[in-house]
Amino acid sequence: MAQGDKVDAVIVGGGAAGILLAAKLGHGGKKVVVLEQGPAWQLSDLISSQIWSRRLKWGTPPVQLDGKNPIAHNFNTGSGFGGAALHHYANWPRLHPEDFRMKTQYGRGLDWPISYAELRPYYDRIQTEVGVSGDAKAEVWRPPGAPYPLPPLRTFRQAEVMTKGFAAIGQRTAPMPQAILSRPYKGRPACIYDGWCDAGCPIGALANPLVTYLPVAQKAGADFRAQSYVTRVLMSDKGDRALGVEYYDAQKQRQEQHADVVILASNAVQNPRLLLNSATDKHPDGIANSSGLVGRYFMVHFGGRVLGLFDEDLENHMGTTGNQLMCQESYAKDKHGGPFGSYTWQITQAFKPNDITGLVNARGNLFGDDLHAFIRQAAKGLAAIQALGEQLPDPDNRVTLGDKKDEYGLPLARVTHANDDNMLALWRYALDEGMRAMKGAGAKEAWTAPSPGLIHVMGGTVMGKSAKDSVCDSYGRTHDVHNLVLAGTGLNPTEGGVHPTFTMHALALRTSEHMLGNWRGYA
Known about the structure:
There is one protein chain. The protein is of the alpha/beta class. The protein has one domain (about 5-45, about 55-60, about 70-520): FAD/NAD(P)-binding domain, CATH 3.50.50.60. Helix content is about 25%, strand content about 20%. It contains twelve helices and 17 strands. The protein has helices at about 15-25, 50-55, 75, 100-105, 115-130, 155-170, 215-220, 270-275, 370-380, 420-440, 500-515, 520; strands spanning about 5-10, 30-35, 65, 175, 225, 230-235, 240-250, 255-265, 300-310, 325, 345, 380-390, 400-405, 410-415, 445-450, 455-460, 485. The strands form three sheets. Strands 1, 2, 5, 6, 7, 8 and 17 form a seven-stranded mixed beta sheet that branches. Helix 1 packs parallel to helix 11, helix 5 (about 115-130) packs across helix 11 (about 500-515) and helix 6 crosses helix 10. The radius of gyration is 22 Å and the shape is globular. The mean pLDDT is about 95.
């Protein structure tokens, strides 16, 4: 299709949610354009190197980070085709039923406008479409759902040792469900366990969008445009519908793409920024913001890392960037007098020399000869586990427009974030449990990270039942503008204690089906 021709749908953001929606809508007969601000990555661009993998993280525009505990924005987002899912760790547990009913069941946080039962069939379908490896029976905590289509991935000595450690404190473990192929599947090869998942997986064993939904979308005729920097949503004079988007192309020339439906599928920082930067005289506080909630309830997970040194070869260079095992024995939110919230133990991962999860950063207080001596031991004897834990939605953790501007004169996003007391208490509670497991495994030395890691970005455009309590409905359609749809982790009213990528896929699949079945209601 020619640039500028009106289409059925324009999708802003070429990450996992945007590409999945393009594939499903395109296959359903809709003309779709996808605008992505980053490069048009291909599998041949993916190099198993920590330095090269940094290219896959966030590129432009910059983000102003503020608050008592600023987030690690660049690491948690992505730039170019595939987005953050191009370098994600592929840990894919499901949310639990209680994660959807926090306010009703516990009087804390927010409720989702849908239940686990409503999302369950989409979890089941997604895991078959992309290929998830795991053992549903071993996951005794897992909500109801179909068995995984593939057996679990291999484990190595590090996992065997830590299984003993969790057993020592009376806790069970199971293979981590991972969106990585344990055997060939749908023309893609099986994992080779070299631990370079966060570099994008050039062989295609990991379910990154370049090998899952991008080929489907392209075959269906979707038009993907890289280096396309969207600056605002174009609105009708009456302010009641979206007409399309304004963007700047690779030559930095201003363009307009008109469409019957506008879908914002950027990350949980950039979607609020676009809505706020699209303010008009009819929407002075930003579009889809009659609730005043655009940007609010921004959330991250905490990471509670426990490390240990052993006097044996743990084969810790083998496996995946994600985790060989999991444990959800402490997932229950009510700790009977302790801190509130859920967490999942992510048990063991493949180590590389440096970067955020590397050997060097395992002991950030060591330098010189002491660091060299530690690395010699850690290269074979280091083990790690991490509690991925829940932060409750807080309206004061939010995305706003900053005082700095991009090259086109529009305000950058400012993310204000602070850890709350309950989250810190839950983090300490998990660390105590993890230290007991590490010592039970026989570690000769064990220690914890000095502060919580801040992982993933969610919230900011939360779903709900009305404009009084949310930005959009359960399909991502904004309450204020019927042909403006949101996608991605920004929709999550709560986050649970699991990675968000599986749930994001399931929600996007559900949205695509509803859109195709009710197109006139959107367009």
